[in-house]
Amino acid sequence: AYAGKKDYDRALTDINRALSMDGKLSTAYLARAAVFIAKTEFDRALPDLDRAIELGPAVLLAHFSRAKAYE
Q1: N or C: which end of the chain has fewer CB within 10 A?
Q2: Higher per-residue confidence, 2 vs 20
Q3: Which of 30, 34, 27 is nearest to 3 (CA)?
Q4: CB-based contacts of 12-18 (< 8 A; 24+ apart in sequence)
């Protein structure tokens, strides 16, 4: 919700909290990567996209987002 409002710091706080509770949430890694991409911090997004793909290889959005981050 915060990312949609461009309140990226609050979004990152919530996502990081979720990941601290369960480090195997591929969707949380994908969400954090989306925030980093929105902030044009592609170098920070790539490790999260890699982890999202590792945890959920069928999540096509993670593959697509990683390809776009490399552009």
Answers
A1: C
A2: 20
A3: 34
A4: none
pLDDT of residue 32: 96
- Give the HSE-up count for residue 46: Cα atoms under 13 Å, Cβ half-sphere: 8
- Could you tell me the pTM of the whole model? 0.88
Q: Are 69 and 61 in contact (CB under 8 A)?
A: no
Per-residue pLDDT of 24-53, as tens digits, reads 999 999 999 999 999 999 999 999 999 999
